[in-house]
Amino acid sequence: MLSLKHVAKSNAFLSRLAIVISTSQSLSSSLSLYPHFYYTASFRSNQNTHFLPASTDFLASSFKDWFKLHNNQLLDRIFGILGAQVDDDLPSRRAADLALSQLGLRLSESFVLEVLAYGSDVLSCLKFFDWAGRQPGFHHTRATFYAIFKILSKAKLMSLMLDFLHNYKTQRYFHRVRFHDTLVMGYAVAGKPDIALQVFGRMRFQGLDLTSFAYHVLLNALVEESCFDAVEVILKQIQMRGLEDGITHSITVKNYCKQNRLDEAEAFLRGLMSEGRELDGHGVSRLVDALCKSNEFEKAGKLVEEFRESGMVPMENAYGVWMRDLAQAGKLDGALEFLRSKKSMEGYVPEVFRYNVLLCRLLRENRLEEMCDLLMEMKEGQISPDKVTMNAALCFFCKAGMVDVALKLYNLRFEFGLSLNSMAYNYLINTLCGDGSIDEAYRVLKNSIDQGYFPGRKMFSVLADALCREGKLDKMKELLMVALQRDLMPSTYTFDRFISALCKARRVEDGYLIHGELNRMNQVTSMNTYFNLIHGFNESKRGDIAAGLLIEMQERGHTPTRALFRAVIRCLCDMENPEKQFYKLLEIQLSHHEPNCELYNFFIDGAGHAKRPELAREVFEMMRRSGVEPNRSSHILMLQSYLKSERISDALNFFTDLRQRRKIGGKLYNAMVVGLCKVNRVDIALDLFREMRDYKIVPSIECYEFLIQLLCSSKKYDTAINLINDLETFGRLVTSFIGNVLLFHSLKTQELYETWIRLREVQDESSYGTSMLGLLVGAFSGRVTVSQHIDNLEELIEKCFPLDTYTYNLLLRRLSRRDMDLACELFNRMCKRGYEPNRWTYDILVHGFLKRGKKAEAGRWLEEMLQNGFDPTEGTLHLMSI
Fold first, then answer.
1. Is residue 50 part of a domain?
2. Do 721 and 739 meet the contact criterion of CB atoms below 8 Å apart?
3. Is the pLDDT assigned to residue 515 strictly greater than 60?
4. Of 281, 283, 301, 279, nearest to 292 (Cα)?
5. What is the pLDDT of residues 452-503, one digit of tens each?
6. Which pTM does this prediction carry?
7. What's the pLDDT tens digit per position in 731-749?
8. Is 24 inside any structural domain?
9. Does any domain span residue 161?
10. Mean pLDDT of 521-545
11. For the chain, what is the domain count?
12. Is the CB of residue 279 less than 8 Å from the CB of residue 271?
């Protein structure tokens, strides 16, 4: 399934590809008359073409047929037999030899070269070379030796190649070819020109000489290894023997270019041309390439055109090199324009590997429309794709948002002999992860491992992150084990992500085991992972392990927060022998860290939240005995410890004791008032509040909020309104919390508004008569008629206090009693203004529609509610069951 961000893009490409493919299949004869077809059909059409799901199968089938063009069933069978030989024991070798013999192959130099060129697996090529050399009636030639040497060299298997040459004399079938020639060529291709020259010297001493083929292999190797003095010597030998030809000229140009003697290379070519000498095109290609690498593109371009106009040089290779260098230098537009020009004017068709350069560059630059055109051009031109082409096409489908097509081609890969490269695997796995097809991505990865490919750290992290996100933790564990077996150390982030996912899945023990392995490997776990592990063991009531992790994370350089200490201490206090566990952790902390207020405060806070005020008080006294003077936070935390356990008298005694010993500030008063409100002791809280006012201490907003909320819940509306008036005397604004409390109670009862009116009559009228807040309370209680227009309601509230999501929910509740259309309009306005709907927002709407019997509309809102992860309240569920 495609992600939304890819839908538009993939539809465009599906349209483009399907039109071209279907047209080409039905009008194949007509296409030959219109070679410009691919450039006249544009992606930029404004028409929106829709396709049936069959489009995916259609595209995959069409590209599969194209990919099959390069297939050779006989060669596939040969490499299938060679690839099936996993073991290198004698029975396995004999079985493979027998299977090859049963194919009835007619061995010749050309056939062996074809097989070696077709294969992509070096070991299989080497096995075939060995088998062919042991067959009666066939003897390896210089060309077949050179081919296998090039394969080994390209694969950078130099040690294997040198062993091959070292054992050369022991192989009976090698003696059918020129012995010394083969040695010279082998060492030359292996990058050992010094040994090749030694062998050549021994040959000359014995009166033997190299063939023209071997001379040129040696000459080329000397140029490659920058042995320029030796190049001149061998070149003279070639000229003296009359072996000079187009290959010699090409290597000579290469020699000049290698030394950056580009003017001499150009003069050499022009001299050959003026003499009417043989030119094979490779020399021109080498000079063009050297000029481009020297950033002389203008000169290179002129040279290409000049030699083309001469008509004396085959230009296909030079064209290909020119396009490649333009593309690699970022001049992709120039390369594409050159291709179009030469194709239309000269009928030039590049070889497949030239197309591949352009395809890969277009892919890299995300120019997918032009890449699509080029793929279709190759397809319709019946240009047989190679593995690079197929891999690039697979990447194209992934990047174009058509991962379904890419996946189908991947599943069919054995039908056309596709072996994915690392880039294609990365694209496919990454796209599948982004598309949410995690199981498919994991399957592709497992298959890739069987093929000997394992993703790099970045790709591993993408898949690991997706597996953790989707909760596929057993697969993630398997992936991790495979990575470690291959000595691939995932990033710390990946480990942390996995451990965190295990903790969230309540598999904290598994996470702890992986954490232990990380420790043994000296990998530092992140602070976030420690948090997750500790919280996981807290939930499992294993405070002892949580405490151990807390200490360990400190030793690793992480600083725990007060909340983390609090959680661990609360868990310890729920275990057996809580005092012992508590003091053990405190003792370790004091032994590892310099005693200070903050450390003691952590334990006072933790004990208070665990409702063990006696432990908190003991830590408080211990702090004083150790010479650490408690600070204001210590006093506040101690007060809160008593209040959380509803030991009001102990809290008051402690507060009184503090007040007698020193002057008390506003923060201690505020802590007492808020704490008393939380345990529903509004009477004592009000006394302390008034005491603050008498001492000219300004209460915090939090004091006002808690007191007004508790007073309204106790229906002491007059006192609550007086507090609002008191708040305004300080020039402070009504907060959203206070405003929402008033609106909530106004919806429940008219008493709040009646109290408001009564107080207006006995107090200064200006305090309440013009109060917008009073008008708002009256409107919500139904006693004051105001416009039902949403804009007016919002404007009225904004004059009193800032709106938040809770305010909108109250507005929705009020409107849903009268007009559900207005309620829906308010919902849309709320979202447009950036407020996030919550569970109550959706529940109010579902409830409102159900109350009016509109079950279909309620069902639609319920579906949206569930999609956003919210469940209906019990009241709404009851209505749904009626």
1. yes
2. no
3. yes
4. 301
5. 777 777 888 888 889 998 899 999 988 888 887 777 788 888 888 999 999 9
6. 0.66
7. 889 999 999 999 999 999 9
8. yes
9. no
10. 91
11. 1
12. no
